[in-house]
UniProtKB/TrEMBL annotation:
Organism: Roseateles amylovorans
Comp. bias regions, Low complexity: 378-395
Signal peptide range: 1-28
UniProt entry tagged with the keyword Signal: yes
Matches recorded under InterPro entries: RND_pump_MFP
Family, per entry: Belongs to the membrane fusion protein (MFP) (TC 8.A.1) family.
Gene3D superfamilies named among the record's database cross-references: 2.40.30.170, 2.40.420.20, 2.40.50.100, Helix hairpin bin
Descriptive protein name: Efflux RND transporter periplasmic adaptor subunit
Region (Disordered): 362-395
Keywords from the named record: Signal
Length: 395
């Protein structure tokens, strides 16, 4: 009689499962294939040998060629100020007035001293004449006459001194009123009624009627460029903010400060407008054009990235279609473009998509619908043939 197996079918099934677990574990722990990296599309441009024609702009202001800070020649309490900011003044017009009570009293005292000196001089003169007669008659000696002569001369000198002092006090009383000696416009008010001001403290500033200057500040490293542009016809021009659509007006550099401003460390420049009319206080922009920078190229902002704290660009190798970083030096900016150095003609620079790429990564040129296969646009005159588009938006 055959023997019946004591192991149930369920136990046999579990034993087979346990035997297969090591194999499943090895399969699960094995190296899996990585997913292929997605294609990266970039916009590029090819550099040429042409340099970038740079234009620099400076904020400017229209000022009078001559401005006077008017002040009192004596100190005192300011009683009134009769002009405000922007007021038009004429020669001889009263601008402000000090409290002149003390000056009037000093003038009265000087007049009294002058009168006393005059009386003393006249008395000394009359005595001297009588002593001359007495000397002729032999009643006094020559030495006594000489003493009377010296007393008369001293009295005359005291009279002259008192008269000069009276004139000074009269002038001091007149200095208590501030009048304009020129025709112009009040451009600044520096004192208010009730203030006690010292002699020479500015009260108002008056811009004289006459020629106007375009005033702007130049950084120290651009002094030579401004001088060169000033000697070139059309090198310097000005655009008025109030009429941005108008053509720039030519200007001629008239004055350039020899020392820098202690606060801003810039050099003050004044230029004369060649034709056209401007109003006092107008804001403007001075444009310096015609300067060239050797091996300088204009690149879009998106083409320059930061790598290890330095500005760099990604260069595309057309043979391998890979990108490699290249350190550059940024020397300026014009609008949405940067002026960079450190690149040579013939290089192909990634202008869009550089921020998502890594060195040595393979890329493809972005091709818009209907465009030819090669989309590398050369730089013409420092400008790309077409504006760069964002690679992230084109993928």
């Amino acid at each position: 009689m055959p023997q019946r197996s004591l192991v149930s079918p369920r136990v046999k099934l579990w034993s087979r499962v346990l035997m297969c677990l090591p194999a499943l574990w090895l399969v699960a722990c094995g190296k899996q294939e990585q997913a292929p990296e997605p294609d990266r599309y970039v916009r590029t441009l090819v550099l040429t040998s042409q340099s970038a024609g740079m234009k620099r702009e400076y904020a400017a202001e229209v000022r009078a060629r001559t401005e006077s800070r008017l002040s009192f020649r004596v100190g005192g309490k300011l009683l009134e100020r009769r002009v405000d900011l922007g007021a038009v003044v004429k020669p001889g017009q009263l601008l402000a007035r000090l409290d002149s009570q003390d000056f009037v009293l000093a003038q009265d005292s000087a007049r009294a001293a002058l009168l006393a000196a005059k009386v003393n001089r006249d008395q000394s003169g009359a005595d001297f004449k009588r002593y001359i007669e007495l000397r002729d008659q032999g009643f006094i000696s020559a030495a006594e006459l000489e003493r009377r002569d010296a007393a008369f001369k001293a009295a005359q000198a005291q009279f002259d001194q008192a008269r000069a002092q009276a004139d000074v006090q009269r002038n001091q009383a007149q200095y208590a009123t501030l009048v304009s000696d020129v025709a112009g416009v009040v451009t600044s008010v520096d004192a208010e009624p009730g203030m006690v001001v010292a002699a020479g403290t500015p009260i108002v500033r008056v811009a004289h009627d006459g020629p106007r200057d375009i005033v702007f500040s130049v950084p120290e490293d651009q002094i030579a460029l401004v001088r060169t542009a000033a000697s070139t016809p059309g090198g310097l021009s000005v655009k008025l903010w109030s009429d941005a659509r108008a053509e720039p007006l030519p200007i001629q550099l008239r004055e350039l400060a020899a020392s820098a401003d202690p606060a801003t460390r810039t050099f003050l420049a004044k230029a004369e407008l060649q034709g056209g009319e401007v109003r006092l206080g107008q804001t403007a922009t001075v444009v310096m054009s015609g300067t060239q920078a050797d091996d300088a190229i204009k690149l879009p902002l998106s083409a320059v990235v930061e790598a290890q704290g330095r500005a760099s660009v990604l260069l595309l190798d057309p043979k391998t279609m890979t990108v490699q970083p290249r350190t550059v030096q940024v020397t300026g900016a014009e609008g949405n473009e940067l002026i960079v150095h450190g690149l040579t003609p013939g290089m192909e620079v990634v202008t869009a998509g550089a921020h998502v790429l890594t060195p040595g990564q393979k890329v493809k040129r972005y091709k818009p619908a209907g465009a030819p296969a090669e989309d590398a646009r050369p730089v013409v005159g420092g400008q790309p043939a077409a504006p760069a588009a964002s690679a992230a938006s084109q993928r």
